[in-house]
Design brief:
Length: about 325
């Protein structure tokens, strides 16, 4: 993939900061990180970080934060609104776009989803430090090997932060649960908005229903993908084309395209061929032809060669 295309895909990812409470400044902080949407085929992967004063950890932990996956959407939304209203809890989310995920995973030298997750988590933690906040302890729900992840974060933070990486940390540490809620609520809202926008702009169909949870196992998501899929171009950019089920749907239901591979010509391949088959010499562009003129080949619009007529009269939709 061209570097320009990859840069454009990366530019679709962004970070959103909540307000930084005054009580979180100039004091040691404990922070938690979790993600939402890692395994989905539709929409962004969202990483969230929540933080509060370390000396208030026990008190704030009693507010009732728990793993977002165990909560109803209504309960999650209520806790997220409560989190933002306390004036004592800070939060930040990082949206890793579906475009960036697809672009990097489909590179010849593919970038794994784990590597993108590591970078997102480290970026959030370093963002707190760059804001002058005193991050003293970071607790993260693991992706892949916990010790490898811990070393990556520890070294990336110059060894100045106590880093804990564990499986199911979102169910064990309330600060990670708070991060999970921030990430999940943001993810749910973004999937609905992105799916509706994609349908409106690219298909011009009824936009009252979206892509469900965005996960491959969700029947609503499967139905949305079948309905929206273009037979040549697939889906809008909210889909992760690198996912196995997306590839399977394209292989099964889309129009097969054979790009063909040019073979290198061996020296002398044209020696016995006709004059028409041989490539034109550059000198012919500067030598007058018998009929007058420069002798250069006459170029025609590609649409006329293909029998398509005016390009302005054609459309892919």
């Amino acid at each position: 993939m061209a570097s320009g295309a990859l840069a454009a895909a990366e530019a679709r990812s962004f970070t959103v900061w909540g307000d930084i409470p005054e009580g979180c400044r100039n004091v040691p902080l404990v922070a938690g990180i979790d993600e939402a949407g890692r395994g989905s085929v539709i929409g962004d992967m969202i990483y969230g970080i929540a933080f509060w004063p370390a000396d208030a950890d026990a008190e704030i932990s009693r507010l009732g934060f728990q793993d977002s996956k165990t909560l109803t959407p209504e309960a999650r939304d209520k806790l997220f609104e409560g989190l933002k209203a306390t004036g004592r809890i800070g939060w930040v989310i990082r949206r890793v776009s579906a475009e960036e995920i697809s672009a990097k995973m489909l590179l010849r030298s593919a970038v794994s989803l784990n590597a993108m997750a590591f970078d997102a988590a480290l970026g959030l933690a370093k963002g707190l430090v760059s804001e002058g906040l005193m991050l003293s302890k970071l607790i993260v729900d693991t992706v892949g090997d916990p010790e490898r992840y811990r070393r990556f974060l520890h070294d990336g933070l110059d060894g100045r932060v106590d880093v804990v990486v564990e499986k199911k940390a979102d169910a064990t540490y309330p600060v990670v649960s708070a991060a999970s809620i921030a990430a999940k609520c943001s993810r749910d809202a973004s999937v609905k908005a992105d799916a509706l926008k994609a349908r409106c702009l690219e298909q011009a169909v009824d936009i009252r229903s979206g892509a469900g949870s965005g996960y491959p196992s969700d029947p609503v998501c499967k139905a949305w993908m079948r309905e929206v899929m273009h037979p040549v171009f697939g889906w809008p950019s909210v889909a992760r084309f690198s996912w196995a089920n997306a590839k399977d749907m394209l292989d099964t239901d889309a129009i097969a395209v054979d790009f063909g591979e040019d073979t290198e010509e061996a020296p002398g391949d044209y020696a016995g061929g006709s004059a028409a088959a041989a490539p034109a010499r550059i000198s012919t562009f500067f030598t007058p032809s018998a009929a007058g003129g420069s002798g250069a080949s006459v170029r025609k619009p590609c649409s006329s060669l293909a029998g398509l007529g005016s390009a302005a009269a054609t459309s892919v939709f």
